[in-house]
Design goal:
- This protein has 300 residues and is mostly helical.
- It has a single domain, classed as Orthogonal Bundle (MetI-like fold), CATH 1.10.3720.
- It is built from 13 helices and no strands.
- The chain is elongated and about 75 Å long.
């Protein structure tokens, strides 16, 4: 029994090594990771890359088509769209990362406690989660932002409150399955404390679904932030935002379609990159998919 529980960390490290070897074999995942990396680098180095001030108004340059001077054209205020896309990436990615952090900090402990202890603890926590899940996520986010006020910090808080219950429900389901495994029973028999069992045995063996779900939360947060900004509840003008720029471009679809195409393409590339990378992580962290690919390819 003791040898089994002591070998788990080494088995866990071995699984991570195998996953790291499997991930590059998924071409779609590599493409998604490259897309996401490029967008992240563009957001980080936006002050160095952006050729113009994203909020500077020049009415003499309004609605200029894409050119060497303005790679994505200009909007109805003469602002450089390429510069606004770079700074808008900062908003979308920062919201996505903070929502992921919020959902992880609250959703994972809630799901672990509910699934492992069960009974009245499970009933109380899951009824709270069900209360949030009864509302459509975007509608609940709009309601929360409407109560708190249209501000980017309030958008992050609202989206975190929307995504945390979804993650908690998934973690609870995985915990219910993992807590019945032999190594958890062995740890209980050896007198390990519940907190140690949850952190050292249950959580360690749920990293794969949690990581994959966090990529889903990330992409959902990017889309939700753009949606809220499109509706006027998120980033407020003149600050750059992909969703806000899409909303302002609606009136100029016939005269300046590049205004709408640029933010739409950025959102699509970002979400596709996150989803492709999430699919690659799911396959890399799931040993069953390795065996399936080997059978298909005739290996082993």
């Amino acid at each position: 029994m003791a040898e089994t529980t002591q070998s788990l960390p080494f088995q866990f490290r071995g699984s991570l090594v195998l996953a790291a070897r499997q991930f590059p074999r998924n071409r779609a995942a590599i493409v998604g990771a490259v897309f996401l990396l490029l967008i992240c680098l563009a957001a980080i180095f936006a002050p160095l890359i952006a050729p113009y001030d994203p909020i500077q108004i020049k009415l003499s340059l309004k609605l200029k088509p894409p050119s060497l001077e303005h790679l994505m054209g200009t909007d109805h205020f003469g602002r450089d769209i390429f510069s606004r896309m770079l700074y808008g990436a900062r908003t979308s990615l920062s919201v996505g990362l903070l929502v992921v952090g919020f959902a992880f900090a609250f959703g994972v402990p809630l799901g672990l406690a509910s699934g492992y202890f069960g009974g009245s603890v499970d009933n109380l926590m899951m009824r709270l989660v069900d209360a949030f899940l009864t509302f459509p996520p975007l509608l609940l986010a709009v309601a929360l932002v409407g109560l708190l006020g249209p501000d980017i910090q309030n958008v992050m808080l609202a989206l975190g409150l929307v995504q945390a219950p979804i993650l908690a429900r998934m973690v609870r389901g995985s915990t219910l399955a993992v807590r019945e495994e032999v190594y958890v029973t062995a740890a209980r028999a050896l007198g390990a404390a519940p907190v140690r069992i949850v952190l050292s045995h249950v959580l360690r063996n749920m990293i794969s679904p949690i990581v994959v779900q966090l990529t889903v939360v990330f992409s959902a947060a990017v889309v939700a932030e753009a949606s809220l900004s499109f509706l006027g509840f998120g980033t407020q003008p003149p600050n750059p935002s992909w969703g806000r720029d899409m909303s302002e471009a609606r009136r100029y679809l016939g005269d300046a379609p590049w205004m709408f195409i640029a933010p739409t393409a950025m959102i699509a590339l970002c979400v596709l990159g996150i989803n492709f990378m999430g699919d690659g992580l799911r396959d890399a962290l799931d040993p069953r998919s390795w065996r399936t690919r080997r059978r298909v390819s005739g290996e082993g």
